[in-house]
Amino acid sequence: MKPVDPQRHGRVSDRDAKRSAGHSTSADPTRVFVLAPILEHAAGRGGDDSAGRGKPVAVRSAEARLDEAVGLAAAIDLNVVGQAIVRVSTPRPATLIGSGKVEELGAIVHADAVELVVVDTALTPAQQRNLEKAWGAKVLDRTGLILEIFGARARTREGRLQVELAHLTWQKSRLVRSWTHLERQRGGVGFLGGPGETQIESDRRIIQERITRIEKELVSVRRTRALHRETRKRVPYPIVAIVGYTNAGKSTLFNRLTRAEVLAEDLLFATLDPTLRGLELPNGNKVILSDTVGFISDIPTDLIAAFRATLEEVTEADLILHVRDVSHPDTEAQAEDVHAVLSSLGIDVDDRSQFLEVLNKIDLLGAADRQSLLASADRQPPEERPIPVSAITGEGLDNLLAAIAERLKDEVAHRSVALDPADGAALNWIYERCMVADRHDDDTTGEIHLDVDVPRKRLDEFTRRFSKALLRAGAEQA
């Protein structure tokens, strides 16, 4: 095992301290030390990706991983007073890192009056408990930290329930024999006799009862969501979903395009619940733009399921905008993490017709890197060409809107129909599910003539319903 990286150890920089302090909501926020263990056998891994697509895996740098962990801590107003990288050649079952490093870090924890140590990896319950004993401070692993952030940011009822469910499931896994304070025995009750129920069994039972109640509540919430989903499907406009790694600038882009006021801060997970707004394209067509939760590497499996409600806007989208922070040194690794989450939702990330890559934050690039990026984008085939933009300055947004319009041009079919004025149900169906471009009421026959833009996904149903009306309109036009 190698020593603590001296360049990455010690008190955080002025920039990090200001970022953390600037978002504090407490007069005395929790003092935190962030530790990034780098497992050397994993850090050096290369080759093909896990999805088996034969693509090289982008390896995230240790420094970027530590910076991200510090950002996660700052996202919930923790006062990060120190940070370090520890390179681990052989993980220890009891503490993950070796005893010498445990002692060395313990001295730092005590000297800086640290109350919480964030370990940016998944710890076993035993490792967490042993490190807490050694350091005399609370220890939170990456999964626990992400759960805390999601719990603080969820706004919808289902989002809150799903976060609580994931948190309880995680807590239940922490109830193991290493937690000695839970080993106290309760005496037998009534005729049952026997040694009674241990505290650990009681706590596990209480957690399971709450999990069962939440799961029942979620059944009801999902029924309501299913109704909302059916309502959304009747909306006549294509849905464009914005996805990307957390802090890639999705909400800033969303606000710039729609003039909305969505929370857009330099914080990881600033957006958790979906936001929908209408957007008019240069050709006059309208779309619904959806801002979604930011993705992140090593996200807990339970939380992918927890935010399936948010990500449904992605699975049902006609076009997905993948927003990337091209100024970030690990932009390629972040893109792979986004693809991994989308693949887990059953989305074919290799289907280029469904994706439009948006290269954001070009204003942060140096002149040479910027020119190289623009030239590289221009060389790509039109159907795969990424769109370089700056959501802050507005550069490239006209090109982005034009690209969206071009991608969605085949999503709408133009039709003309002639309806009987007494057929109110047919007229209502068209107005609810299609876009009426023009209407003319014939003063002689009373017929209603409509020029309609029909969403491609509704074209078959439209043709079945209005075959006679279409034929009549065609004959009159002839």
Q: What is the topological layout?
A:
Elements: H1 14-22, E1 31-39, H2 40-43, H3 62-74, E2 79-88, H4 99-111, E3 116-119, H5 125-135, E4 138-141, H6 142-153, H7 157-174, H8 199-233, E5 239-244, H9 250-258, E6 275-280, E7 286-291, H10 301-306, H11 308-315, E8 319-325, H12 331-344, E9 355-360, H13 367-379, E10 387-388, H14 397-407, E11 412-419, H15 424-433, E12 435-441, E13 448-455, H16 459-465, H17 467-477
Parallel strand pairs: 1-2, 1-3, 3-4, 5-7, 5-8, 8-9, 9-10
Antiparallel strand pairs: 6-7, 11-13, 12-13
Helix pairs in contact: 1-3, 6-7, 7-8
Write out the CATH superfamily name of the largest domain. P-loop containing nucleotide triphosphate hydrolases
Q: Look at the helices and sheets and give the structural class.
A: alpha/beta
Order of helices and strands: HEHHEHEHEHHHEHEEHHEHEHEHEHEEHH
User: Care to count the β-strands?
Assistant: 13
CATH topology (fold) name of the largest domain? Rossmann fold
Radius of gyration: 27 Å
The overall average pLDDT, rounded, is 78
Number of domains: 4
Proportion of strand residues: 15-25%
Walk across the major sheet and give the strand order. 6-7-5-8-9-10
Given the C-alpha coordinates, what overall shape results? globular
Helix content: 40-55%
Determine the number of helices (DSSP H or I, runs of at least 4 residues): 17
